[in-house]
Design brief:
Structural class: mainly alpha
Low-confidence stretches: none
Shape: globular
Length: about 100
């Protein structure tokens, strides 16, 4: 694989690289986490944003989003941000919410 120039520069510590590689290879992790880890690893190798997007199946905009969040917050930046809105009412371990049919 040829490395192209990219304006994004990500330098990983050995611990970060190890964690990201474990997540990228994981079969029991959410797919979104695997894709985010693969994205950062490819960018750290110097692969272009367009090529990373092709390899992980995401738009350039999304690749840039995760690169920016990683550079600002490191590994914590790859977690989902809190969402606004009402909390869910469905609780898998307790069945349906009160008053709802099954």
């Amino acid at each position: 694989m040829a490395t192209n120039k990219t304006p994004i520069r990500i330098e990983l510590t050995s611990d970060e690289r190890e964690i990201l590689e474990q997540v990228a290879r994981a079969h029991a992790m959410p797919h979104r986490d695997v894709v985010r880890a693969q994205t950062i690893l490819l960018l750290a190798k110097g692969v272009s944003v367009s090529e990373v997007g092709r390899q992980v199946g995401r738009a350039r905009r999304i690749v840039c989003k995760w690169a920016d969040r990683f550079t600002r917050k490191r590994l914590r930046g790859l977690d989902d941000a809190p969402r606004s809105g009402r909390p869910p009412r469905f609780f898998p371990d307790r069945g349906n919410a009160p008053g709802e049919a099954g």
